[in-house]
Amino acid sequence: MTEVIELIDVNKVYTTGAIEVTALRDVSLRIDDNEFVAVSGPSGSGKSTLMNILGCLDVPTSGIFRLAGHDVQSFDEDQLSEVRNRFIGFVFQQFNLLAYMPAWRNVELPLVYAGVRPAERRRRALDALETVGLASRADHRPGELSGGQQQRVAIARALVTEPGMILADEPTGNLDSGSSADVLDLLQELHHAGRTIVLITHEHDIAQRASRTVVIRDGQVAE
User: Fold this and answer.
1) Residue 45 contacts by C-beta under 8 Å, 6 or more apart in sequence?
2) What confidence score (pLDDT) does residue 1 get?
3) pTM of the predicted structure, to 2 decimals
4) Nearest 5°: phi and psi at 91?
């Protein structure tokens, strides 16, 4: 299998004045193409810091981070931004949808930043909404959708650039149990269709839906 992510002895230290806080300690981790991996751990364990590094939102203080074979530490901010926009699809606990835009306009936003032409943006946005089962809601604004439907729109937005990896940070945190199950079913369908899924969660039953769980505790890989 082709590795999508490889971390070797990664450390992350935050410095405020004379105070240093080590958020990650010697983390080594490999995630292969088309894996469905959950990263689990309690609040303060370091999983959010790990998510930021995996998503190229932050960089390690030391160690090696390779993404699709490339050393991320060598990237400048423009390159990191391009990787985030093209290779990684983000899904967050807060849906982060623009309230004044219909669903399809929210979904097309990453393509706007990528410079895709309007007609092509709309076509791809509608295709992505079809994939998540919301084609009939394309013209509805977020306030006209349920929480579960809003998260499906967010997943469609993550898919629209056809990224190699979906990084989902507590994607069921604001949903009821029924909507949570629907979102997890959708992530599993995307995994079976060939996507690499990394799911960040502090809930054990949610993590069990993944094929493999990486437990983070006190900034280290515990198991």
Assistant:
1) 216, 217, 218, 219
2) 47
3) 0.89
4) -130, 125
